[in-house]
Amino acid sequence: MSATLVFKALADPTRRSIIDLLKEKDMTAGEIAEQFNMKKPSISHHLSTLQTAGLVLSERSGQHIIYSLNTTVFQDIMMWMMNVSGKENEK
Fold this sequence. Notes:
It is a single chain. The chain has 91 residues and is an alpha+beta fold. The chain has a single domain, classed as Winged helix-like DNA-binding domain superfamily/Winged helix DNA-binding domain (Arc Repressor Mutant, subunit A, Orthogonal Bundle), CATH 1.10.10. 64% of the residues lie in helices and 15% in strands. The protein has helices at residues 3-10, 13-24, 29-33, 40-52, 71-90, and strands at 27-28, 56-61, 64-69. Strands 1-3-2 form a 3-stranded antiparallel sheet. A hairpin with a 2-residue loop joins strand 2 (56-61) and strand 3 (64-69). It is elongated. The relative contact order is 0.17. InterPro entries: ArsR-like_HTH, HTH_ArsR_DNA-bd_dom, HTH_MetalResp_TranReg, SdpR-like_repress, WH-like_DNA-bd_sf, WH_DNA-bd_sf. This is Transcriptional regulator.
């Protein structure tokens, strides 16, 4: 996990909205795109960024790709953040 990639991915409000959608259920790119007022290539770019950061997983199902949230990365980031704040309290 690269914290830099995760934080870069989370910095964009559209990507945070995609994560919120995927918290509810796994979705195809088309289903995700229906929730936004932007072109499908833009959604694909956001999904690619989320995948590169490890926040989103994809699995092919027939002709569709199903996207889901990778909660392991969120847990790792939370542990890292708790560890950083814990060290600061030691000073």
